[in-house]
Write the structure tokens for this entry.
Amino acid sequence: MVHFPPISQLRALDAAARHLSFTKAADELNVSQSAVSHQIKHLEDLWGLKLFIRLTRKLELTPEGRALATVARTFFNSLTATLEELKAEQNHQILRIQMLPSVAVKWLVPRLQGFRDIHPDIDVWISTREDENIGFRSGRLDAAIHLGDAAGDDLMAWPLMQEYEFPVARPRFLEERGMPQTPADLCKYPLLLRSGDIGAPQWQDWFEDAGVPEATYGPALRAGMRFPDSNMALQAAFEGQGITLTRSAPVWDDLVSGRLVRLFKIHRPFKSKICLVCPKQRAGQPAFIAFREWLQDISKISQAAFDAAELQ
């Protein structure tokens, strides 16, 4: 049977493991150095495991100490986060939204203060890692913004934006290498490719719409840097490492500011719309309704800008 120690001893283990010093751990916990040393000794006796190697001027964690210190740190982090969440919910409404990192970072976050100005009592918590299906079932998510309509028996969906896909590059990159004159010229430049994401814009589709034969673009797509997500590919483009194929929302503000340049007006709508989805039982919550209406309003503004750019 596992013997659980007092919380003070787990705190001593956590602090000593982070600092690798009983003295610094004691300063953090506002106790004496000998108190920390005794607490660690009590843990070692309780569990029958050596947690630290005590050297002349420093401490080293044993493998057992490292494993248990990780458990203690996870426990304290989880406890702190849960308490903060529960306290926050007493004074504010919490709206947990799962969304694509590229849409979150480059489109929603720069506009989110506008929602907070209107609804200061609603806190939007964004996640880019939570599995939305698991999150909906567990109650950890209230809604999701993703590509594609996922409405079903248990979900409601609202289309937000129809994006377009096109190549972009940093202005300085084009100044140094010259502006491509035809879509086929892009094959002579380093193309920033995606790996393992069939939902991303595909170069071969864009080249075919542009009338570039496979014999021309094929070799260019078999070599070069590959990235697992849009943010990495865009960052590489910002660093002047090549040309990436992207969607409207993640780059729109950078196109307007001139940080990126769109290459060629090949009209190609992206295959999936950005949609807001929500479990039906949560769709009537006032906080969600407020967020949905605000999101639909700012999406209309962005959609109008996307469409106007296509008609120029």
Q: What stands out?
A: The mean pLDDT is 89.
